[in-house]
Structure formats: structure tokens, C-alpha cells
Amino acid sequence: MSEWIIILIKIICALVWFLVIALYLTWVERKESAVIQDRIGANRANIWKFRAIGLFQPFADAIKMIFKEDFTPKFSRKFLHNLAPFISFFFVAVTISAIPFGDVLRIGGREIKLQVVDFNVSLLFVMAMLSLGIFGIILAGWSSNNRYTLLGGMRGAAQLISYEVALGLSLIGLILVYPSLKLSAIVHYQGEMLWGWLPKWGVFLQPLGLLIFFFAALAETKRVPFDLPEGENEIVGFFTEYSGLKWGLFMFTDFMEVLIVACLLTTLFFGGWQVPWLYADGFHFPWGGEWLLPHGIVVAFQVLAFNLKVFFFCWLQILIRWTYPRFRYDQVMDLGWKLLVPLSLVNIAGTAILLSLIG
Amino acid sequence: MAHFLFFLLAIICIASVLGMIISKDQAYTALFLIVAFVCMGGLFGLLEAPFIAAVQIIIYAGAIMILFIFVVMMINLRKGVGPEKKKWTMYFAVVIAAVLVVELVLTLKGTLEPISSAALESLGSPTDLGRLLFTKYLYPFEITSILIIAALVGAIVLVKKRDKE
After folding, report:
1. Contacts of B73 in chain A (CB under 8 A)
2. Are B15 and B60 members of one domain?
3. Same domain for B161 and B90
4. How far is A83 from chain B (nearest CA, A)?
5. Which chain A residues contact residue B69 at CB under 8 A?
6. Which member of A16, A126, A257, A336 lies 3.0 to 4.6 Å from A221 by CB, making a disulfide possible if both were Cys?
7. B1 located within any domain
8. Domain span holding position B26
9. Number of domains chain B contains
10. Side-chain half-sphere of A133: how many Cα atoms within 13 Å?
């Protein structure tokens, strides 16, 4: 019985973390774009004149979106039209269950993994859920029964399945290096040291794989350099016929995707919750120093390290989104099929040859 | 819990396959098929074969069906062309269905005994699956991949515009 309660608590904690951070990413996006464009950004939302640099803005946005009219056009296929935003949202939201936030937490003789479910093939689980999320876009574009939304949905489907190929291939090199499909095991392997001092993070062992994964994942979030499905100045996008909270769900899903991409980058290439030279009993520095810490502090360090890395990658993605203009459609396809896919094949072959030479 | 999940997934799977056969709108047919594939993935997961479950969803539901839906929506037929109804096709269909049922029963007969859990474990893990593919089943595996590549090249050659002679 107590195991069920623990799982329930873990699900609630992970979901609340996911949704709150994604909600505040909208605020980060507004502020960061404002700084880039020499503006102040959202700062008017207040509680009794208390503004707190616009920190209440996401909640004001949410309340506005909930009370807007939710309009379903007469010519749409009603059931699918209503279902599409929830498909999009659901399949991104479940991926958080496979992300390890930290190592094992011991309370009162009980070992709790800081991960909702430790699947056997959690890496593939995340990929599967992200690939099912595409149906939300296609269905939204098609069921609206509008030519522009249909174009948006088509572009979205073509772009996302093209980049899924590069995304999947870029991870094969990583699986060769860390022989497991379990995210928790991949993070554990990254705790080992190379030559006694360099942590075995994916960024050092798979630099090319990291680059390919990062570009492909950026395309999967379908935000600005790759926002062909939306293309707001040419086709308005696949969610043209949505309003109110359902449109909000599509927008929110984009931010959740940014967050899950940051989580995956951290977990796969930057050691997840690993802090360099931090072991289960404290720091052991390669130059001989030691700093022993109690168990609770070590776990706090791990969770903090995971969060900091994730925030860094969220910031980086938003920076890219506000820096580069949109690619043309043929450029996106060329980049995916003619550059990223061959490069990832080179990466797989190179990694395999190196590994067989070493041992 | 496992029993409950099994029956839930099995019922949804069969219902969506029925829906696929009955529905006349091609887009809905494809969507029902996707639901069936996802349920199949779930059933594989319940059978301790998580790798096959994930691959089932990634490849069938995630990649192949998206291409299907892509084409169906591009062509955008609202109502499908009704099947041609002739008397003899119905009798023929009944005969074929009967043959298929007999075949199904014959194949199922050998697999209905409970499998030992050791056999289940080797079925599920990606390492063992990969090892089997590259040792015991090497030739079938390579021949299948050559066939798939041949089909791909053939499709491209057929679709490609010919130069004016």
C-alpha cells in the first residue's frame, strides 16, 4: 500500500514541477525577448500594487485564457477538433515520468528512486511518446477543415518525422558508449571518470552526437528557427481555428517541449543529476582533497545540479528562438536529410570503430 | 491490476479494429488503426517485452501511420468509394474467412501453454534480441533488410520524373 502512496506522491511532485516550470518559461521568454529587443517586458500584473518584476504574469495569462470564449467552428470535425489539443498535451506530459531527478533517497530504511517509473527502456519510451504527440498537430490541422491549418498540419508532420530520424540515429552512438536504454543507468555510467579526473559525460564522449541531437530536438519543439507548422506571417498555423484554453494548451505544449528537451539534453549528454567528483558519501577531488557530506545534502546537491542544468538549456533554447529568423521549407528539409542524417551515420560508424579499437 | 489492464487493452484493441473495418471515412479508419497499434504496444509491455512494445509504438503508430494519415488527408476524400457488392464475392469471402480461422486456431494451439518466465525474459531484453538477430537469424535479417532497401529504391525509381527523350 505504501508503495502506491509513494508513487502517487512522485507523480504529483513531477507533474507540479513540470507544469510550474513550463508556466514560468512563458515569463522567462517574455523577459528574455524584452532584454534582447531593448524593452522592459511584462511587468504590470500585480497583487495590491505589488508587481514583483512581473512574476504574476503567467497566472494572469492563465486566468485570461480560461475565461475566453471557447469557439468550435461549425465546419470542423467536432470530436477530433476537441480531442487534438489534449493529445498534444498528454503525450508530452507523460514523458516526465521517465526523467531521473536524482539518485536514491533513503528515508527511514526505505530507498526511494527520484524518478517516477524506472522503465527498462525509458529512452525508447520517451521517443515513443514524443512521436505520438505529432498526431495532435496533424489532427488539429486536418479536423479544423481549413486550408491554412491543413497546410500547417502537413508541414508539421513532414518536419517532425524527418527530424525524428536524425534524433533517433544520433542517440545510437550514445547507446553504444553507455550500453543501456535505461535513463537511470545512462546517468550512472556518466558518473565514472575518464583518466581519473574528467567525468564521462556525453558531451565529452559524443560531441558530434550532442550537436545532431540538439539541432534535431530544436526542430522537434517547432519553435522559431523551425516554426514551419506555425509560420505566423504566411499560413498562421495549424491552430488557427482554436481559441481560449484549447489554443492555450497548444502554446503551453510548446513550452513543455522546450523543458523536456532540456531535461533530455541534461540527462543524456550532461550527466543528469551528476555533480563532478560528487559520490554517495561526498566530494572526492582528483587532486586528493575530500569533503564528506551527509546523505540528505548529497541528494539536495544532485537535484539542484539537475535543475540548474535544465534551466541553462531552457535559457539557451529561448535565446536561439529570439536570435535566428525562420528557415525556408526546403532549407529545413535539406538540413534534416542531407546534413543531420548522414552526419549521424558517420557518428555511429566512428563510435563503433573507436569502441572496437579500444576494447 | 495486470489482468484488468490486459482486458481493458484487449477490448479497446478489438473495438478499434472493428471500428476500422466498419468506418467509411478513410481518415477515421487510419485513426482506429493507430489506436489498435498503441493497444498492441501496451499488450507487449504487459508481456514483459518492453523493447518490442516501444518499437511497436515508434515504428507502427509513430512513423508508418503518420505517412498513411498524411496521404489520406492530402487526397482528402470525404466519403470513401463504396465497395462493389456482388453475390459471389460474399460467398468467396466467407470461404476465405473460414480458411483463415482454421489457420489461426492451428497456429494458436501450439502457443496456448504457459511459457516459463525464463523464456519470457530472453524475449524482452534488447541485448538478447540484438544478439539473436545477428547470430541465429543473421541471414533472414539481412535478406529482409535487402528486400526493404530494394522496395525503397524501386519506389523512388517509379515516382521519379523521366527526362524527355
Report:
1. 138, 142, 150, 153-154
2. yes
3. no
4. 12
5. 135, 138, 142, 157
6. A257
7. yes
8. 1-79
9. 3
10. 26
Selecting from B27, B61, B70 the residue whose C-beta is nearest the C-beta of A132 gives: B61
- Of the two residues A106 and B145, the one the predictor is more confident about is B145
Q: ipTM higher than 0.85?
A: no
- Do B72 and B31 share a structural domain? yes
Same structural domain, B150 and B95 = no
Is the residue at B2 inside a domain?
A: yes
Q: Which residues make beta-bridge pairs with A20?
A: none
SS3 A9: helix
Clarify whether residues B105 and B145 are in a common domain: no
What residues of chain A score a pLDDT lower than 70?
A: none
Number of alpha carbons in the 13 Å side-chain half-sphere of residue B137: 10
Specify the pLDDT at position B52. 86
Quote the longest CA-to-CA distance of chain B. 67
Residue B117 lies in a domain: no
pTM of this structure: 0.88
Point out which residues pair with A50 in neighbouring strands: A47
Residues of A in contact with B34 (CB under 8 A): 135
Cβ–Cβ of B66/A135 closer than 8 Å? yes
Task: Give the residue from A124, A159, A164 with the most B CB atoms within 10 Å of its CB, the best one to mutate.
Answer: A124
Query: In which band, very low, low, confident or very high, does the pLDDT at B121 lie, cut at 50, 70 and 90?
Result: low
- The residue assigned the cell 564528506 is A292
Q: Which residue of B23, B55, B69, B78 is the best one to mutate when testing the A interface, meaning the one whose CB has the most A CBs within 10 A?
A: B69
Contact A134 B66 (CB under 8 A): yes
Q: How far apart are CA A260 and CA A92, in angstroms?
A: 8
Based on the domain organization, do B103 and B130 belong to the same domain?
no
Chain B residues with CB within 8 Å of chain A CB = 27, 31, 34, 38, 41, 50-51, 54-55, 57-58, 61-63, 66-67, 69-70, 73-74, 76, 124-126
CA nearest to A147 within chain B:
B74
**B59, B131 in Cβ contact below 8 A?**
no
CB–CB contact A164 B69 (8 Å): no
Instruction: Compute the nearest-CA separation of A291 from chain B (Å).
Output: 39
Any alpha helices (H) in chain A, and if so which ranges? Answer: 2-36, 57-67, 78-93, 122-143, 147-177, 183-189, 202-205, 207-220, 244-269, 295-321, 329-334, 341-358
Contacting residues of A for B31, CB less than 8 Å apart:
80, 139
Q: Contact A140/A83 with Cβ under 8 angstroms? A: no
Contacts of B33 (CB under 8 A, 6+ apart): B16, B17, B20, B65, B68
- Based on the domain organization, do B105 and B141 belong to the same domain? no
Q: Is residue B120 part of a domain?
A: no
* CATH code at position B61: 1.20.120.1200
Smallest Cα distance from A287 to chain B, Å? 38
Residues B26 and B93 in one domain: no
**Residue, of B56 and B82, whose pLDDT is higher:** B56
